[in-house]
Amino acid sequence: MFTLLFWKKLWTWLKHFWYWPVIIILILFSLAAGKASREKMFELLSKQKESYEKELQIVKKASEEASEKKSTVLEAHKEEIKKIEEDHDLKLEDLDKEKQEELAITIENNKDKPDKLAKEVAKILSAQYHGNDR
User: Fold this and answer.
1) Buried b / exposed e along 77-95 (16+ C-beta atoms within 10 A)
2) How far apart are CA 86 and CA 92, in angstroms?
3) What is the pLDDT of residues 92-128, one digit of tens each?
4) Does pTM surpass 0.85?
5) CA 32: distance to chain centroid?
6) Domain boundaries, the chain
7) How far, in Å, CA of 118 to CA of 116, rounded?
8) What sign has the CA pseudo-torsion 41, 44, 46, 52?
9) Alpha helix (H) ranges present in the chain?
């Protein structure tokens, strides 16, 4: 009557639809246990649902806080980069002014010596000078 094929089919069905026998067993148990047990079981299920919802809210809140912190840090980082770029631009302007002053002094000091003037200007501008070094 109960062949090997039947048991294999039953096992396959149970693997795929395991929740049906569990539901039937729970319904039979709740009918046998009485009204008080059913109320306790539904109370337990409702408490678990509330707990799940609270945990879900906590996770959502933590995610929002992390996102907010990330955006705050990103904004602070952008402001810091902007400040560094502005400072860098100011320092470049100061450096250019220093080079201009140095060039003016060098030109004034060497206006009668063109070869020496060319060497000094090349040094200041970080260039190469190929003059008459004989």
Assistant:
1) eeeeeeeeeeeeeeeeeee
2) 10
3) 677 677 777 777 788 788 778 777 877 887 777 766 7
4) no
5) 55
6) 12-124
7) 5
8) negative
9) 4-16, 19-33, 35-109, 114-124
